[in-house]
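Quick sanity check, Oxidoreductase:
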Amino acid sequence: MAGWSADDIPDQRGRVAVVTGANSGIGLVTARELARHGARVVLACRSEARGREAERRIRAEAPRAEAEFRRLDLADLSSVRAFAADLPYDRLDLLINNAGVMALPYRRTADGFETQFGVNHLGHFALTGLLMPRLLTTPGARVVSVSSVMHALADVDTGDLNSERRYRRWVAYARSKTANLLFVHELARRLQAADADVVAAAAHPGYAATDLQTAGARMEGRKGVERIMELGNRLVAQPAESGALPSLYAATAPGVRQDSFTGPRLAIWRGAPAPSWRARRTRDDVMGERLWAASEQLTKVTYQGLGEAA
């Protein structure tokens, strides 16, 4: 793993990949590099204009790339269902659950969920479940969920998943990122119990310069916070090209293990991909089962072909 870069991505020809949030930041880089190495990549994005522009950019930078935009709004479960139903491929080798929102003012999704929990966790939970039959029938398939070191700030509160008692934007974000890791943990257990040839892994970009840091402040018109975030991106953060490497490693490197967590090597902040620290609670079987059950109830999505973990 030492010094691993995008040049080390194995040949992806013949493989189909879905990357959520592929219109910018690490999602765009992830999609571009998979396409550059031969994969047929579906850019699953909410905005058609930004998705089409990402498709154009990828094809301009990699003329032989097979990249196509398809609309997906993770804040609307009807959009998630439509995306899964309309995806025209029988196989699915890679599902990169990359899209996310961070530290937003309190909002609700189309289905009434707190937006950070709804988009970052529930939308991806539903998408993965709806695509699971294709993943299970594709040898060597992988599901990679993008979490954050910020998960360390808060545990999931299964009694208040939508932050109705009290909303604190950074706590809600941290809870959604803990939920990502608990989801991967429980999915990995269920895949192992079913003896499935699918790996569920997680990754995080460290501190990478993307639009994620400034979106919440911009929505509320908090210009001072927005400028501070922009300054941090310029002076401290690593570029999106580096931030995407842990996701690309988890998706393509040989020998990636179930329930692994990959991040930057240097102080889990920047550098080449390496195994990352994670809070012990993100491998709690009981909490994983509780979150899974609650997610099924809220999304009305069950995973065909997967029963309970052993």
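Posting the structure with no commentary besides this: The first helix runs from residue 25 to 36.
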